[in-house]
Amino acid sequence: MDRPPESRDDTLSRKGLATVVATPSHRVEQDELRERMRAVGMSHDEIAIKVARRYNYRPRAAYRIAHGWTQQQAAGRINAHAARTGLDPHGKAPMTGARLSELENWPLPLRRRPTPQLLANAGLVPSARVGHSRSASSAT
Fold it and tell me: Could you tell me the pTM of the whole model?
């Protein structure tokens, strides 16, 4: 029996280069997993580690999903935090869902390298700090 040709996504996933694109069924499954884990008292750190392992997600995306945020919601939180703390008081460098996607998938090929300030802004959202990303990546 002939195998169907491998898609680009299958090839990237097999090589560990999958981008974070959750299908509607994955989103529902991830929401249910997060809700079950929170119901038994598991932390966002523990949920992020499970999400990273189960779905082969990068740590930054796993933490966002562990909190139940869409990319646009997380970008809004990052922007609000940057304005509140004075890191970007005039909103001249707002985070967008698309830019957050690039940040979550960096350092994959064809992704723009984030600046240290961008990493700091994204990492300062409470419970989604850059330092937390290390724990999920080292646990996978």
Answer: 0.66
